[in-house]
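Entry
Fold in C-alpha cell form

___
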Amino acid sequence: MNDMDIQDLSQLRQIEEMKRQILNKILTKEAFERLSRVKIVNPQLANQAELYLIQIFQAGKINDPIGDGKLKGVLRVLSEKKEMRIRRK
C-alpha cells in the first residue's frame, strides 16, 4: 500500500467512527442493534438510513432518542422508495 491508500483508510475509519458515535447517541439500544442487523443483510438500505438519521440529527430535528418502532418506519419508507419504478406505456 502506498501512503495515499493508508491515508484514505484512516479517513474512512474516522468517518465510520463518527457515524457510529452519532448513531449511538440518537438511537436506543434496540434500534442500534436493529440497524446493525439490517447492515448485515442489506448494507445499502442501512447506509441510506444512517445518512438520513445523521442529516436530521444535524438539522436539529431529533429531540428524543429514536426507538425501534421509529427506525422500522424509516427503514420501511426508504425501502419503499427504492421499489418505486416509473412505468411507461
About this structure: Residues 3-83 form a domain with the Helicase, Ruva Protein; domain 3 fold (CATH 1.10.8.140). The chain has one domain: 3-83. The mean pLDDT is 88.
